[in-house]
Amino acid sequence: MSKGQRAGDLDPRSGFGGIMSTMPDEVEPSPPIGPDEAISPKLAAQQTGRLGELLVQYELLRHGIESAPMTTDTGVDLVAYSNIRGRAFTIQVKANLAPKPAGGKGPPAVDWWVSEDCPAEIYAFADVSTRRVWLFTKQELASAAQQRSNGRLHFYMYTNPDAESVGYTRHGDERFSAFLFDSRVAVLFQ
Fold it and tell me: Using one digit for the tens of pLDDT, what is the confidence trace for 125-146?
């Protein structure tokens, strides 16, 4: 507040002394995490899962879609509401902190396991290290999953095209680019 100005004279659009008026109307996605910004490898599985959920919630909100986490894990991690569709969607989130060697010593890959009887409508697969999220419907996941074992679907993708592996040619992340969040959000929620 400047000298001689009363609290009632403040322009509510200027918020916090004008700080808010300098903020952009649209938020750009964060860039991938660089080599100098390594994520702590000491995170517990629950923390990695929560990071994935928060990343998905951030992306949903960036597109104007409200979401909330579930308090118990029954196969649904988030519920998102689409104003345009006028309904809620259930989402199962699976997260990887970063790619790891396939099979323990192969080229880098991210992978996720999902129960075939999971009640969620949409599956969000997150690679936290690159801040990428892929969205699949139940039918799309059943078709894209490379393995089925004991009532679970295994979905994976190789992440390094320079590895020159046959696996990348067949199951590289480029093959699934149509399922990346920004390509899918309008199709699924708007």
Answer: 999 999 999 999 999 999 999 9
* Segments of the chain with pLDDT less than 70: 1-41, 163-165
Parse the chain into domains and list their residue ranges: 42-189
The whole-chain average pLDDT of the chain stands at 84
Q: Which CATH architecture has domain 42-189?
A: 3-Layer(aba) Sandwich (3.40)
Rounded Cα gap, residues 165 and 142, in angstroms:
24
